[in-house]
From TrEMBL, chain A:
Alphabetized InterPro entries for the sequence: Bact_Polyamine_Transport, MetI-like, MetI-like_sf
Pfam families documented for this protein: BPD_transp_1
Native source organism of the sequence: Catellatospora coxensis
Family: Belongs to the binding-protein-dependent transport system permease family. CysTW subfamily.
Gene3D superfamilies xref list: MetI-like
Membrane disposition: Multi-pass membrane protein
Name of the protein in its database record: ABC transporter permease
Entries under SUPFAM superfamilies matching the protein: MetI-like (SSF161098)
From TrEMBL, chain B:
ABC transmembrane type-1 domain ranges (all copies): 90-296
PROSITE patterns referenced in this protein's UniProt entry, alphabetically: ABC_TM1
Keyword hit for Transport: yes
An annotated GO BP: transmembrane transport
Transmembrane segments: 30-52, 94-113, 125-144, 176-198, 219-241, 277-297
Lineage: superkingdom: Bacteria
Membrane topology per record: Multi-pass membrane protein
Protein's recorded name: ABC transporter permease
Family indicated by similarity: Belongs to the binding-protein-dependent transport system permease family. CysTW subfamily.
Originating species: Catellatospora coxensis
Record keywords: Cell membrane, Membrane, Transmembrane, Transmembrane helix, Transport
GO cellular component: plasma membrane
Subcellular location: Cell membrane
Length: 277, 306
């Protein structure tokens, strides 16, 4: 018993941490559970009542069964990938300029990067809506893409900047001392070192774009370019099809597997490096 | 290779190689601007200009409509009208956001501390756990909370059993449900910056504090907390700003008495099409948050948050 109290005194912070993590998982577990439920009607998709729980595989075997659900998923992936590519390129260029060069207007550039992150999404959504209405630009894929790239850029800059700032500037000088041209030094030395940061930024951009609802809600207008979050929101009146839970669970499991695989790879690589050195 | 030879033969190289910035970086002053141009242009056209447009729209003549078109009229009365109609929701949103931020800090600090200081071999796995909610959709997570807090759900059942809630009592459509949803959705935004600053903390400082006869409580408040202030500031901002403008939680978990300013702006824009008032509300929200953030950051005394 004495040993237990000592253990608890040592580990209570860690235990509290795990309890809080468990709290973060509660709704995810509920979504997983509900993905095996056959609700009486679409309006009871999000009712958690074990007495009326009806086990089924249908939501999994017939994922695209609800009209429009998989189309919306594909649209979200398409918008997400497009926005990620553009925002990652634009953001990476900005962070190189900010970290590698001293120039006039650096302070105001930093402010301009910070502002979108300090602005509530609803303000960005409404202001883009007034712009598009004013210019009479038809809402749809293009307006959604424009908006997503806009709010992703700042996050890309911050992420890549952090990686670049940790980089020893003498590496480039060393490469150039060895007669590498600036371009070669960049491509062969700097870029491979910054790549993990760029990849992290791209992942962040994709998840921000893929899951965005508030801004997208404003720039979709009356167009039928419905992204996945917009599909869920739009089904609110008629009730949400239970397949949404199966898709959300699948999304969770796939992303989780990817991240864990990435973790294992870095761990194995550092173990190998430790073994060879 | 010639430049390396003196080093190889053992003589110090530093004196023989002239230290100068690489040729390409020294001369071409236009390079940084070329790198910045595309991204900043995007932000200028699709962030700065629209915000300017929004401010203009907030001063449109309110007697116009979508069909007849609006005219610019310096109609500052829009702001007075907007305040008159919706100050309850406006102040409520700021209040909810404040409570959410405080609760997130109280929950997020122990979690970030556990991961950064006590995590050990669990560290990476715990970090994955913090971002795991992002692997499912924001709306789906909020709907899941709706299920958890629903009238026939487990939480209400338990509270009724424990007589903490009357037979007709419910959690949905209460302030509690809305704030619980906000706390859940924005907790990771608090934990991640806190973790980043606690992870940089030199554990030897804590040992030094202990060696100097500081108890655990005192060394926490005198050493750990002050050193993690940049994380506290970044985390509170990243929690407060999105929760003040959120309307998803209020819409899905709340009722008419818990409506937030985001819902009002949303329905004014997309349902009622009352652009001048909606724009005025949006501008008010943005300016209020910018002012609060500026005051907060300057009193808290960190120069660089990002």
């Amino acid at each position: 018993m004495h040993g237990f109290w000592r253990w608890l005194a040592e580990k209570w912070v860690l235990l509290l941490g795990f309890v809080l993590l468990a709290y973060l998982f509660v709704p995810i577990a509920v979504v997983m559970l509900l993905s095996f439920n056959q609700p009486a009607s679409r309006n009871t998709t999000y009712v958690l009542d074990l007495e009326t729980f009806q086990f089924t595989w249908n939501n999994w075997t017939d994922m695209c069964g609800a009209a429009g659900i998989c189309d919306s998923l594909l649209r979200s992936i398409y918008v997400g990938l497009s926005a990620t590519v553009i925002a990652t390129i634009l953001g990476t260029l900005i962070s190189f300029a900010l970290v590698r060069y001293r120039f006039i207007g650096r302070g105001s550039t930093n402010t301009l990067i910070f502002l979108p992150m300090a602005t509530p999404e609803i303000v960005m959504g409404t202001s883009l809506l007034t712009l598009f209405i004013g210019l009479q630009i038809p809402m749809g894929f293009l307006t959604i893409l424009i908006a997503h790239v806009m709010f992703c850029i700042s996050f890309v800059v911050v992420t890549v900047k952090a990686r670049l700032a940790g980089l020893d500037p003498r590496l480039q000088e060393a490469a150039m001392d060895l007669y590498a041209t600036p371009w070669q030094a960049f491509r062969l030395v700097i870029l491979p070192l910054v790549l993990p940061g760029i990849m992290a930024a791209a992942l962040l951009a994709f998840s921000l774009s893929f899951d965005d609802f508030i801004i997208t809600n404003f720039v979709t207008g009356t167009s039928d370019y419905t992204t996945f979050p917009m599909f869920i929101w739009g089904s609110n009146l008629r009730g949400i099809p239970p397949q949404v839970n199966a898709i959300a669970t699948a999304m969770f499991l796939i992303s989780f597997a990817f991240v864990i695989a990435g973790q294992l790879r870095t761990r194995r690589r550092s173990a190998r490096r430790a073994a060879t050195s | 290779m010639a430049a390396l030879l003196p080093t190889a033969s053992g003589t110090p190289a530093a004196t023989e190689i002239p230290v100068e910035p690489p040729a390409g970086m020294r001369r071409r002053k236009w390079i940084p601007y070329a790198l910045l141009a595309p991204g900043l242009l995007w932000l200028a056209v699709f962030f700065v200009y629209p915000v300017f447009q929004l401010v203009m729209a907030s001063l449109w003549d309110p007697s116009g409509s979508v069909e007849t078109g609006y005219t610019f009229a310096w109609a500052f009365s829009n702001y007075a009208d907007a305040w008159e109609m919706f100050h309850v929701q406006f102040l409520r949103s700021l209040g909810y956001a404040l409570i959410t931020t405080v609760v997130c800090l109280l929950l997020g600090y122990p979690l970030a501390y556990a991961i950064a200081i006590k995590g050990g071999r669990w560290k990476n796995l715990m970090l994955v756990g913090v971002i795991a909610p992002f692997f499912t959709s924001f709306l789906v997570r909020t709907y899941a909370w709706k299920a958890i807090l629903s009238d026939s759900g487990p939480v209400v059942d338990f509270l009724k059993w424990a007589h903490l809630l009357g037979p007709d009592g419910r959690l949905l459509a209460t302030e509690f449900a809305v704030i619980a949803g906000l706390v859940y959705n924005f907790l990771p935004f608090m934990v991640l910056p806190l973790y980043a600053s606690l992870d940089k903390l030199d554990v030897r400082l804590l040992e030094a504090a202990r060696d100097l006869y500081h108890g655990p409580v005192r060394s926490f408040f005198r050493v750990t907390l002050p050193l993690s202030m940049p994380g506290v500031i970044a985390g509170t901002l990243l929690t407060f700003i999105p929760s003040a403008g959120d309307y998803v939680n209020a819409q899905l978990l709340g009722g008419p008495n818990t409506q937030m300013i985001g819902s009002v702006i949303q329905s004014r824009f997309l349902v009622v099409n009352d652009y001048p008032i909606a724009s005025a509300l949006s501008v008010m929200l943005m300016v209020t948050i910018l002012v609060l953030v500026t005051i907060y950051v300057s009193t808290a005394g960190t120069e660089e948050v990002v």
